[in-house]
UniProtKB/TrEMBL annotation:
Phylogenetic placement of the source organism: Bacteria, Pseudomonadati, Bacteroidota, Flavobacteriia, Flavobacteriales
Keywords: Isomerase
Xref: InterPro entries: Trig_fac, Trigger_fac_C_sf, Trigger_fac_ribosome-bd_bac, Trigger_fac_ribosome-bd_sf, Trigger_fact/SurA_dom_sf
Keyword Isomerase: yes
EC number(s) on file: 5.2.1.8
PANTHER family linked: TRIGGER FACTOR CHAPERONE AND PEPTIDYL-PROLYL CIS/TRANS ISOMERASE, TRIGGER FACTOR-LIKE PROTEIN TIG, CHLOROPLASTIC
Protein name: Trigger factor
Biological process annotations from GO: 'de novo' cotranslational protein folding; protein transport; protein unfolding
Isomerase recorded as keyword: yes
EC category: isomerase
Amino acid sequence: MNVTATNHDEVSALLTVTLDKSDYKEKVEKQLINYAKNAQVPGFRKGKVPLSMVRKQYEAGIAFEEINKQVSEGLNNYVTEKKLRLVGQPVPQPVEEMDHNAEQLSVGFEVGYEPDFTIDLAKYEAPHYKVEASDKEINQSIENMQKRFAEQVPQEEIGDDTTVAVEITQVVEEGAEGEHNHAPKQISVDIAKKVAFDLIKGLKKDESLKVSKADLEKNEELAKELSFSKEEVEQLHHDQIEVTVKEFFKLNLAELNQELFDKVYGEGTIKTEEELKAKVKAELDEYFQQNADVHFVNKVLAQINEKEEVKLPETFLIKWLVFSNENVKTEEQAKEILETEKNQLKYQILEGKLMNDNEITLDYADVLGQAEQLVRNQLAMYGIHHLPDEEVQKYAADMLKDQEQVRQISSEVGMAKLKDVILEKATKKETKISHDEFLEELKK
């Protein structure tokens, strides 16, 4: 077997895999003999079917199966040995009817691959913010803990100190029953969600009002406070939602005492309010710094994407889109698709190049560890901070039974490792900033 490359340019080539008959003849012959031993043909005892009869019936199929196998292996081995980072998949050239008895066979594949270039991270600079939690944020976080374990005291009417339990459903138009059966949203609204609170504060228990999809699209703050993202609003199947008050109550905040400390952090971990504030500050600082690190990395990646030139194998990609997508019938359609996907493809190549050049690899332990952290984060949202490790591991293992979850978590792990590399190698312009200022920076 031999594989040769004819370069079209620096990012595309024709790879030709050539097989001699001797490469596959012996394996085909062995399979034919095995067929003859086990074939059951009327008029012949098992194992006594003439080899000539078996050859006539099965040789072509066995030969082409072995040829395809060896061509595929040869192509893959060549790509691996030459360390080609393919863009898309090889596109086989059309071939006339193949003769498996020929002394030599050749199959051609069009391929596109990433250009050879380097990225010097040190030449990229961005602000690296040092964000510290203020007393306001620390106190707000502690108050949220107190609310989580607060006593609910029923009220006669909604006042400024009221928390309102609300159910939100989509209003199904007449004649559309049975279509798009959506589960209702259950949310809480208080004075902190001022727009939503003003909307419902005149309602009594079990009373409701309707909000149009158009109003949610115009009033992003209302949509957000009613727990709808911009994407969720766009995807609403009906023209209205119904907001119903289910109950309302005043929260008597849990006292700052040992009982609360133990509920939040485990028995004996925190013993005083000073320790609690120090713990909360450390957690907030860590969380804020993680966000600041991500902001720095995103700024660097944006600069790289803007400044680095990446030559794409566009001619090949057009062929590949036509070959691999049955809905793409013409080269003109493929060109339109490529034009819309070009920037994303460039970004993926740059990201892959950074990971490859910095020897970033993933293994199962990395993915499992990230899944465990996601489980802990989810539990923390419900005030559960000290579930035994074996329970966390069980939940994480169940999560990884879903292949889409594995793909998503693997991507997160890869980006986390790339983030560490960029934090280490890119140039930081260290800047102290308040959290409010940092949030304003993110809005930009």
